[in-house]
Amino acid sequence: MPAVVMLVVGLGLSLAQAPAPGSVDAKLISEFKERVNQYLQLREKVAGSAPSSTDVPEKLAESRNEFSNKIRAARGSAKQGEIFRPEVAQYFQREISATLNGRYGNDIRATLRHAEPVKMKVQINQSYPENVPLQSTPPTLLLNLPELPKSLEYRILGRDLVLRDSDANIVVDYVPNALPGSKQ
Amino acid sequence: MSIRSKTVPLAAGLIALSVSLAGAQTQSRPGLRIPLQKDSVRFAVIGDSGTGEKEQYQIAKQMEAYRQAMNFDFVIMLGDNIYGEHEPRDFEKKFEVPYKPLLDAGVKFYASLGNHDDPKLEASYKPFNMNGERYYTFKKGDVQFFALDSNYMDAKQLSWLEQNLKSSKARWKICFFHHPLYNDGKMHGPDLDLRNQLSPLLKLYGVNVVFSGHEHAYERLKPVDNIYYFVQGDSGKLVHHDFHRSDLMEKSFDRDRTFMIVEVAGENLSFQTIAAGGDTVDTGTLPRPAASVKAAAANK
């Protein structure tokens, strides 16, 4: 378990047990992180560093578009499930289900309902539409999923779990129906 | 930071003109109230502001009138700073144009992110003073501010918050973020899962005040765990008749858009909530809670 999580554990908050080293789940997490790193290495190679701060809105849009277009071009043939391989996707579904059935399950469901839920068809490499709100991801869920590097994030879209590149505003991969259908 | 001088786009110019004309009829001269003490920390609060519509401009006009009367130095933004598209024209119409008099006067804006914001674009937009980060802290006098991203409260952010609260020597600790931990609004209500993970830290490390938006109305709550909670998500958007009554509610207002002016001086925090028409709809002075004093001492 990463050090950052240990501090939070100190407050007695609900976290899933980290898989035992060498277990099947630990290997799936390791594989997932490896594929995430491969994505970031590719991103660095084709697009360089994320756009930097500016007080000129035109530059914000320009540099974001340039950055994301380079990544899209390099991943033109990317398919759903390349990072969330089927076994990895099943691990995520199990973790989400366990979290929703855990101590804070009802509160997480309430948070999801109150967070202006978004329903739209997800596609790899698509930009998340700017005029659609980004649904917040329940914190307890985040604490129970493998930690991501700074520029990537998990987002819930309907019942799908999306891996989003927040620097490029690109859907990198997703798990369809990651959230159970009942009680939603 | 200076905002570029430029020709105001036609659409934004027409809105500014229409607001100016409307404002001439409705705006009243600010009545001074906040204690206005020397060497205090005085700032404004806006939430859910970035619509680009005439009501946002009316609030902005009142803010400038109060700045001229009271001279606040900075503004904290509670998220949904730019609704809808995030094209260059949106940053102009929904931020740079309405608040131009404030920006020109050197007032700094410190933004937090809402669910309608684009995290990367807005964190990289220098006039929001986020330094490229989704969450950050800054200090003014005896007050340390913690701007949080309640859309994505992951382990990294919780750990960062814990470390920074723990090491803070500030007399007052103020957190601001978009999703309220407590509120009686019918539209969204409190974010219960966020509350589960965040409130233990706020309590343990002696946070004194929390400002949130998201609910398109104004509410002041009774202290919870010795923390004062304000919800102020109506500086652009507004939802009328948006409240359940509850034991936690101290004051609510949903008949007009508002902004707040807050002044921290010594052991007291004064607040004044002002509607678009210029009326003060809530005001008071709150002492720093005793438990916060203990928590701060214990964590030193």
Which fold name fills CATH's third level, the topology of chain B? Purple Acid Phosphatase, chain A, domain 2
Number of DSSP strands of chain B?
A: 13
Q: Rg of chain B to the nearest angstrom?
A: 18 Å
> Largest sheet of chain B, described in full?
7 strands, mixed
Question: Which chain pair shows the most residues in contact?
Answer: A-B, 51 and 50 residues
Give the CA-based shape of chain A.
Answer: globular
Structural category of chain A is mainly alpha
The radius of gyration computed from the alpha-carbon positions of chain A, rounded to a whole number of angstroms, is 17 Å
Layout of strands and helices, then pairs:
The complex is a heterodimer of chains A (184) and B (300).
Chain A: H1 3-9, H2 24-47, H3 57-74, H4 86-100, H5 105-114, H6 139-143, E1 152-157, E2 160-165, E3 170-175
Antiparallel strand pairs in A: 1-2, 2-3
Chain B: H1 10-26, E1 41-46, H2 54-70, E2 74-77, H3 88-96, H4 100-104, E3 108-111, H5 119-123, E4 136-140, E5 143-147, H6 155-167, E6 172-176, H7 192-204, E7 209-212, E8 218-221, E9 228-232, E10 249-253, E11 258-265, E12 268-275, E13 280-287, H8 290-298
Parallel strand pairs in B: 1-2, 2-3, 5-6, 6-7, 7-9
Antiparallel strand pairs in B: 1-11, 4-5, 8-9, 8-10, 11-12, 12-13
Helix pairs in contact in B: 1-2, 6-7
Summary of the model, kept short:
The complex is a heterodimer of chains A (184) and B (300). With 184 residues, chain A is mostly helical.
Tell me what you see in this structure:
The complex is a heterodimer of chains A (184) and B (300). Chain A has one domain (20-175). Chain A contains six helices and three strands, in the order ααααααβββ. Chain A has helices at residues 3-9, 24-47, 57-74, 86-100, 105-114, 139-143; strands spanning 152-157, 160-165, 170-175. Chain A is globular and about 45 Å long. The two termini of chain A are 29 Å apart. Chain B is an alpha/beta fold. Chain B has a single domain, classed as Metallo-dependent phosphatases (Purple Acid Phosphatase, chain A, domain 2), CATH 3.60.21. The longest helix of chain B is centred in the N-terminal third of the chain and has 17 residues, at 10-26. Mean pLDDT of chain B is 89; it is low at 1-27. Chains A and B meet through helix 1, helix 3, helix 5 and helix 6 of A and helix 3, helix 5, helix 6 and helix 7 of B.
